[in-house]
Design a protein that fits this description.
The chain is 44% helix and 20% strand. Strand 8, helix 8 and strand 9 (228-229) form a beta-alpha-beta unit. The chain has three domains: 11-95, Arc Repressor Mutant, subunit A, CATH 1.10.10; 101-169 and 274-304, Periplasmic binding protein-like II (D-Maltodextrin-Binding Protein, domain 2, 3-Layer(aba) Sandwich); 171-273, 3-Layer(aba) Sandwich (D-Maltodextrin-Binding Protein, domain 2). It starts with 10 loop residues before the first helix and ends with a helix. The strands form three sheets. Strands 3, 4, 5, 6, 7, 10, 11 and 12 form an eight-stranded mixed beta sheet that branches. It contains eleven helices and twelve strands. Helix 1 (11-23) packs across helix 2. It is an alpha/beta fold.
């Protein structure tokens, strides 16, 4: 197939060609694309001239693709798909590159997965301002309601009539302990009962980390009473590393502080899973920029917690 150097056709011309290839009728094609039969014929003539070959064999009653026409069907479909993808990508970038993104996140998430995603987002969309509020679930919900933030990344389904919850992922719990601890020698999972008598460091209520730890021990009808209560993951890490105790933490939080001097073992029996999801105002759509941030958060949490 010898192609004319001047390819004088448009995506609309390719659409018309593909419709004619499917219908085998100039009349039905004209009706489907809302043109006259002569206009459809003109489009096909231009394509055939540009390609320097006949695309259809015509009779008074039917239209059939030639061998060259059959080949061009595949190429026209590919060209149309590539054009649509290019338009979608350009529109996506244009829409995302405006506005700002403000989010709230639990401290254990704000110190782990969120900064990584914010760094990726800022590198890709440097012109969009980002704002992060690290706070507990209750205040985070209030920030969403007030419109102060676009969404909140939390570990709890608010189950309120004015809020929507979209799950992203879930992480299990591990026991963070100093490197030389007697339970650090094995990689096998630990039962919550096995660690009950240890000296525990945890967050104060109503932190979700503490609520899930309470629930795990309550499954054995035992009240959880940590020796130390602190508000920040970094402080828990420092205390564990110093040998003051152990800490039951979600995997993401433990990954943030799993550095030299501490190790983790998975906790089971029960297998506690902390859900991670996005809270938004009901019947309010996120901006394209906020949607892109949520997409990145989903991607990151899925990669960290397969």
């Amino acid at each position: 197939m010898q192609i004319n150097a001047q390819l004088n056709w448009t995506p609309r011309d390719l659409d018309i060609f593909l419709v004619l290839a499917e219908t085998g009728s100039f009349r039905r094609t004209a009706a489907q694309v809302h043109l006259s039969q002569s206009a459809v014929s003109g489009v096909i003539a231009r394509l055939e001239e540009a390609l320097a070959t006949r695309l259809f064999d015509r009779t008074t009653r039917s239209v059939h693709l030639t061998a060259a026409g059959q080949v061009f069907v595949e190429q026209a479909q590919l060209l149309n798909a590539q054009t649509q993808e290019a338009v979608q990508r350009v529109q996506h970038i244009t829409q995302v590159q405006t506005g700002k993104v403000s989010l709230a996140a639990l401290p254990s998430l704000a110190a782990t997965v969120v900064p990584r995603v914010m760094a990726r987002f800022a590198a890709q969309y440097p012109q969009i301002p980002l704002q992060l509020h690290d706070t507990l679930s209750g205040p985070a919900f209030d920030l969403v309601r007030a419109g102060t933030v676009d969404f909140a990344l939390t570990a709890a389904n608010p189950d309120y009539a004015d809020l929507d919850y979209t799950p992203l992922s879930a992480d299990g719990f591990v026991l963070l302990m100093p490197l030389g601890h007697r339970l650090a020698k094995s990689q096998a999972p630990l039962n919550w009962l096995q660690v009950l008598e240890l000296t525990h460091i945890s967050m104060p209520l109503p932190a979700s980390v503490r609520q899930y730890a309470n629930a795990a021990f309550m499954a054995h009808r035992i009240a959880f009473q940590p020796r130390y209560e602190v508000e920040h993951i970094a402080t828990i890490h420092a205390m564990v590393k110093a040998g003051l105790g152990v800490a039951a933490l979600p995997e993401l939080a433990a990954a943030f502080v799993q550095q030299e001097g501490v190790v983790t073992r998975r906790l089971t029996g029960p297998d506690i899973q902390r859900p991670i999801g996005v809270v938004t105002r009901r019947n309010r759509s996120l901006s394209p920029a906020a949607q892109e941030m949520v997409r990145m958060l989903r991607q990151e949490t899925t990669a960290l917690l397969p």
